[in-house]
Design a protein that fits this description.
Layout lengths: L4 H14 L5 H11 L9 H18 L4 H8 L3 H12 L1
Helix pairs in contact: 1-2, 3-5, 4-5
């Protein structure tokens, strides 16, 4: 991986999208094409954390209590509170 170039390319493409110069789909394709021949590692732990955070947020919008969310997702109440707090920051 070439340093922070992935981050810089993503920011550049996001700026193009925000300026209404590109569709999000074309911006994503541009990023993929630019790094097509390189290995990019995304932590599965990060993906799991993001998935849990999305589930917690969805259940919270329905008014489900922390204890019920923890039981449903198989995590602790403290973890539920921390995930929800990280979404609000």
């Amino acid at each position: 991986m070439r340093g922070n170039q992935l981050y810089e390319v993503i920011v550049r493409e996001m700026n193009h999208v925000m300026a209404n110069g590109k569709s999000p789909e074309n911006a994503a394709l541009s990023v993929m094409n630019e790094f097509a021949h390189e290995n990019i590692y995304v932590s599965t732990r990060y993906l799991k954390h993001a998935g849990l955070a999305a589930k917690v947020a969805e259940l919270k919008t329905y008014g489900v209590e922390n204890a019920d969310i923890a039981e449903r997702l198989g995590i602790t109440k403290r973890h539920v509170r921390r995930l929800y707090a990280s979404l609000n920051n």
